[in-house]
Write a structure and sequence with these properties.
Layout: H1 3-10, H2 12-59, E1 65-71, E2 77-79, E3 89-94, E4 100-110, E5 115-123, E6 128-136, H3 151-154, E7 160-161, E8 175-177, E9 187-189, H4 195-225
């Protein structure tokens, strides 16, 4: 029998102590992680809320007051109460006189690296997208992250056409085209070197506007006629 085997057989208590120590360290580490999460959660939540509010004001210039809305399963616009978490969340922006500026709409989809979360502003009177902000992105620094920084790309969203046809649907679905090939007002001029990320933005907005804009357009018409 080897010397190592003799030592192991002679000291079974040592192995038990080591196992207990490892379990104890694991429990303490898990406790510290949970405590850190619980302690930092309120601050993280507050910072996210502040960032969202700032983004709403960016995509809806002139907004001083907001109201959160959701879209229910019947495709109807409903006011949200605290704690409500609908599948689609948006925010109506109003001027100091109470006039509607437009709607800020949250949307997300798969990018190159991970999920991209965005916010875009919609003007129902002009039937155009009037602003765009990236809320969350892990796209490649210096390439994919240009969707949040590139001024030329941002200019796509000053008056992006999302007009409604007589049948109540979008006339044309928003898409991204290769840089320099934009020909229509509903197209997004992409970013060379960040093709996948800029195309992802087009896909996200294309899907979101197809689902949400017809609802907002109909709601705006009813409100305007009252």
């Amino acid at each position: 029998m080897s010397e190592a085997s003799n030592i192991e057989m002679q000291n079974p208590a040592n192995s038990k102590k080591m196992l207990l120590a490892m379990v104890g360290i694991g429990i303490i580490s898990a406790f510290l992680i949970v405590m850190s999460f619980e302690l930092t959660l309120p601050r993280v939540t507050r910072l996210k809320a502040e960032a969202l509010e700032k983004a709403i004001f960016e995509v809806l210039p002139g907004t001083v007051r907001t109201q959160a809305y959701g879209v229910n399963t019947n495709g109807e616009l409903i006011e949200l109460a605290e704690g409500d978490k609908p599948e689609i969340t948006l925010y109506a922006g109003y001027t100091s006189e109470g006039n509607l500026v437009g709607y800020a709409i949250e949307a997300s989809g798969q990018g190159y690296a991970d999920i991209i979360r965005i916010l875009y502003g919609y003007d129902p009177a002009k039937q155009t997208i009037i602003g765009f902000q990236v809320l969350e992105s892990k796209e490649t620094p210096g390439l994919g992250d240009k969707i949040a920084k590139d001024e030329r790309f941002q200019n796509n969203f000053n008056a992006l056409d999302v007009s409604i046809s007589k049948d109540g649907q979008l006339r044309n679905k928003v898409i991204t085209v290769k840089q320099g090939q934009k020909q229509h007002e509903w197209e997004i001029d992409g970013i060379t070197g960040a093709t996948i990320s800029s195309r992802a933005v087009g896909n996200i907005i294309g899907e979101s506007t197809s689902n949400v804009v017809p609802v907002l357009h109909e709601y705006f018409k009813k409100e305007s006629n009252e």
